[in-house]
Design goal:
Blueprint lengths: L2 H16 L4 H43 L5 H24 L13 H9 L2 H10 L8 H31 L2 H29 L2
Helix pairs in contact: 1-6, 2-4, 2-5, 2-6, 3-7
Length: 200
């Protein structure tokens, strides 16, 4: 698969996973509700740093450890499909409670640590990033750049959503519809991961 095509495919699936409500996005939303985008944008930097470090650690560890264990990638794919299925269900069932989040102050460290420990980082490195990204520093740099380009607007979007939900309540219903649509796409992606393993 050409590099451009692989990175485009990665970007599409990464965007779907990043938009799912989770610990990092909840912190961004909480901060947005309290201090708005201007006071929250540094937290998007914390998210980017957390994911970059976690993806690099997981990715290069897996590529080394799985060198003589090709079956390990199948195990990780199946585990990832279960996790994505869980994310899809969570997105569907929690799409209406985006307004019910804490508005306590959120620190840079809070977002950085939450992102480092986020299971999404393992999913990105083991399933969504091309395997070649962890065999070539040049390829990894491009993959990470694409990832960060996708992450930035989504992180800013979650940060801005707090203010939007506060000022325009009608947007909450539209956001729920969008998230439920994305949850269906995630369910289909979960199925394709299982299919790619059982039909080798």
């Amino acid at each position: 698969m050409p590099i451009q095509e692989a990175l485009l495919k990665m970007a599409m699936y990464v965007s779907l996973v990043l938009i799912v409500p989770g610990p990092t996005n909840t912190l961004l939303l909480s901060s947005g509700l309290k201090v708005g985008l201007r006071g929250t944008w540094p937290l998007v930097v914390a998210e980017a740093l957390g994911y970059a470090i976690a993806i690099a650690v997981w990715g290069f560890f897996l590529s080394t450890f799985a060198a003589g264990r090709p079956w390990l990638y199948d195990v990780v794919k199946l585990a990832s499909s279960v996790y994505i299925f869980f994310l899809a269900l969570r997105m569907w069932t929690h799409s209406r409670v985006l307004q019910d989040v804490s508005v306590a102050p959120v620190r840079f460290r809070d977002v950085f640590v939450a992102t480092m420990m986020n299971p999404k980082a393992l999913l990105f490195s083991s399933t969504l990033f091309p395997l070649e990204a962890f065999r070539s520093a040049h390829y990894f740099a491009w993959a990470l750049l694409v990832f960060l380009v996708v992450l930035a607007p989504i992180g800013v979007g979650w940060s801005s959503l707090g203010g939007i939900l506060t000022s325009q309540r009608a947007w909450a219903a539209r956001t729920s519809t969008l998230l439920r649509g994305a949850s269906l796409v995630l369910l289909m992606f979960s199925g394709t991961l299982v299919y790619s393993v059982v039909n080798r």
